[in-house]
Amino acid sequence: MAQPAADEDEGHDALGVVDALVQLSFAVQTTLTEVAAGADLSLLQARLLGVLRDRTPTMADLAEALRLDKSSATGLIDRAQRRGLVQRMKSTTDARSFLVELTAEGRRLTAILEEEMTGAVDALVAPLDPPGIEMLRLLASRVVGCQPRSAR
Amino acid sequence: MAQPAADEDEGHDALGVVDALVQLSFAVQTTLTEVAAGADLSLLQARLLGVLRDRTPTMADLAEALRLDKSSATGLIDRAQRRGLVQRMKSTTDARSFLVELTAEGRRLTAILEEEMTGAVDALVAPLDPPGIEMLRLLASRVVGCQPRSAR
DNA sequence: TATTGTTATACTCTATAACTATA
DNA sequence: TATAGTTATAGAGTATAACAATA
Predict the structure, then answer these.
(1) pLDDT-derived band at A146, boundaries 50, 70, 90
(2) Does B7 touch chain A (CB under 8 A)?
(3) CA B15, CA A125: separation in Å to the nearest integer?
(4) How distant is the alpha carbon of residue A150 from its chain centre?
(5) For A55, which DSSP code?
(6) pTM for the complete prediction?
(7) How far apart are CA B102 and CA B95, in angstroms?
(8) Which nucleotide is nearest to B91 (CA to C1')?
(9) A63 in helix, strand or coil?
(10) Which chain B residues are within 8 Å of A135, Cβ to Cβ?
């Protein structure tokens, strides 16, 4: 399928639903990546903060939530911890296990990122009128709400 | 904003437009990544093939199209070339410059990926009825700026 | 002098396999 | 034996800075 034509000046061809969705997904990811970069974070580190906003998962939980191997999660948390964003807490119920939680600094950054990402994505859909935005919200919700979870 | 709840079992909460769009973008990216992985390629390598499908850019053009630093493009093309997917052609107009093009094997893989990615994204929107899909196509096109003027 | 591209370097991110400690 | 997590290792991907060759 066609790539997002970042270097072309006229992007007014009619797109099929696949190209439109793929280009939209790249536009959203680019937006999120830029916001994260503004806080000197990778998108993955930002996603980590998002996961930890409402949870205190074990390393294994975290790996599953981010679809990473457990060894990748170890490195991710090592780097986040080194930057003072998260900390490992010994589990009281399983001596092998850690619970990962945000530090105060991590919570501060998480709040900033949430606000900025919301603003940036809102700006992305600003070309639509309010009914269009509501329709997009509804359709996107329906697509992600019907995801087969059983497949990994 | 909330993370795609990969580890939760029911995704039927009402989502705001930002969360819905972010989750949709991750769903699309995950789908594309899985298709690419099925051909033993990263998503970036697959994007590279997509760019080269209709173009024969210089290294600098390529870096711009993929929004990479020129040094990153060097490594990307080195790896793709090592796998026999692309080749560097000396420019006839600028002795400093190369044109990057697909090999026969690269074209073969590109065609397969295009077909599989289209099928996978189509499957993603299958929960919607045909008017919903058309509406999603229209809204996404408008957001990414590729809507024909007549429909604006 | 400016541009094209590579190299050297350092870091993030990713997975596999082997390992330790605990269940 | 099985599970939770780390370590060792290898590789992709990313950017910055310095560099060579050419424009």
Answers:
(1) low
(2) yes
(3) 15
(4) 21
(5) -
(6) 0.90
(7) 21
(8) C4
(9) helix
(10) 135, 139
Residue (of B50, B120, B114) closest to B85 by Cα position: B50
pLDDT the model gives residue A1? 55
Token pair 């989502």 in the structure block, residue: B15
Cα B8 to Cα B139: distance, rounded to the nearest angstrom: 28
SS (H, E, C) B4-67: CCCCCCCCCCCCCHHHHHHHHHHHHHHHHHHHHHHCCCCHHHHHHHHHHHCCCCEHHHHHHHCC
| Cβ atoms of B3 and A48 closer than 8 Å | no
Beta carbons of A35 and A120 less than 8 angstroms apart: yes
Quickly state the pLDDT bin for A13 (edges 50, 70, 90).
confident
Which pLDDT does position B8 carry in this prediction? Answer: 42
Helix (H), strand (E) counts: chain A: 6, 2
pLDDT in tens, chain B (152 residues): 555 544 444 445 789 999 999 999 999 999 999 999 999 999 999 999 999 999 999 999 999 999 999 999 999 999 999 999 999 999 999 999 999 999 999 999 999 999 999 999 999 999 999 999 999 999 999 999 965 544 44
Give the SS3 label for residue A121.
helix
Cα–Cα distance, B117 to B36 (Å, whole number) = 8
* A96-130 b/e (C-beta count within 10 Å ≥ 16 → b): eebbbebbeebeebbeebbebbbebbeebbeebee
Q: Does A43 touch chain B (CB under 8 A)?
A: no
CA of B115 to C1' of D11 (A): 28
Minimum Cα–Cα distance from B110: chain A residue: A1
Token pair for residue B57? 């850019």
Instruction: Say whether residue B63 is in contact with chain A using an 8 A CB cutoff.
Output: no
Cβ–Cβ under 8 Å, residues B98 and B90: yes
